[in-house]
Write a structure and sequence with these properties.
alpha+beta; 294 residues
Length: 294
């Protein structure tokens, strides 16, 4: 009985400690596909000082380049082969980068930015709903940090919108082991190293000066026009003749469509035979493909 009472006291103390230390968030932007908040660490209602170089004005094009260059290693296909894929889709960068840049410019030294972004995976037959979640902040030395909780992680059925998301309770800066790993291939970025010397799997650090330099050199130079006389414009020639009638869709295109659907049906049958999908899923997807054939 005394042992049970002791365990209850320890449990209560642990719960109290967790409740007294938490991240307090203020929503900056929320849309169907993404959510951005400012968050600060508080203990018993008192803000814990941080060393963020905020507010910080970053060029949106630099941030877009960083997000576009980020790659990670994922396992795909039936054989779970490793391949390198982009962290963010182009549409995610277009909608997320301006908001992140604006939020960095309005954050204070105690606030970092938390974000989540939803996307729709692109597969031959099945489209998987996925999410990417993490934090972003600037260090005083002019180093931009992005640490992820999830990178293109399959969303749960209940996660049908990014409005008021349930963020992970794990601090991404403390993740030391993960099946998903970033691939730091950009010359201006590297994976964060813990005090032990081990690299963080999903935490990348970018040197902002080198990032700006890399972005400027990647820009196509503008060629100055020479003062040469403009080329002579050929006179317009009106071609008269029998008007061309509109033809039916090209037969070759229809044959290609049918061949594509045939291959997808074969692949769908293989998934069914290997027990990777149910008979119901097979029937539904088969009907969708067959309906495309007129």
């Amino acid at each position: 009985m005394k042992r049970i009472a002791f365990l209850l006291i320890i449990s209560a103390a642990f719960t109290s400690a967790c409740a007294s230390t938490k991240w307090v968030r203020t929503t900056v932007a929320e849309q169907y596909d993404f959510n951005v908040t400012l968050e600060q660490h508080q203990e018993k209602g008192i803000v814990i000082p941080q060393k963020y170089a905020h507010p910080y004005e970053i060029d949106i094009s630099d941030l877009e380049k960083l997000m576009g260059d980020l790659k990670y290693i994922e396992k795909s296909g039936l054989m779970r082969k490793e391949k390198q894929s982009p962290v963010f889709q182009a549409v995610e960068i277009d909608r997320l980068a301006p908001v992140l840049a604006l939020t960095l410019a309005k954050a204070d030294a105690s606030q970092r930015i938390r974000f989540t972004s939803f996307n729709q995976g692109d597969f031959i037959i099945f489209s998987v709903s996925r999410k990417t979640e993490g934090v972003i902040f600037i260090e005083p030395a002019g180093r931009l940090n992005i640490a992820f909780n999830f990178i293109n992680y399959n969303r749960q059925p209940s996660e049908n919108t990014a409005i008021s998301p349930i963020y992970s309770s794990v601090d991404p800066l403390k993740i030391k082991v993960s099946e998903t790993t970033l691939s730091a291939t950009a010359p201006y970025a590297e994976l964060h190293k813990f005090e032990t010397g081990k690299q963080a799997p999903m935490w990348v650090v970018a040197d902002l000066e080198k990032l700006k330099e890399s972005n400027s050199t990647a820009t196509v130079p503008i060629v100055q026009a020479t003062e040469e006389p403009p080329p002579a414009v050929a006179p317009k020639v009106e071609i008269k003749g029998t008007p061309v009638e509109k033809t039916e869709p090209n037969q070759a295109s229809e044959d290609m469509l049918k061949e594509d659907i045939k291959n997808k049906l074969k692949y769908l049958k293989e998934l069914l035979d290997e027990g990777l999908i149910s008979e119901k899923d097979y029937t539904v997807k088969k009907k969708e493909l067959l309906d495309k054939i007129e």
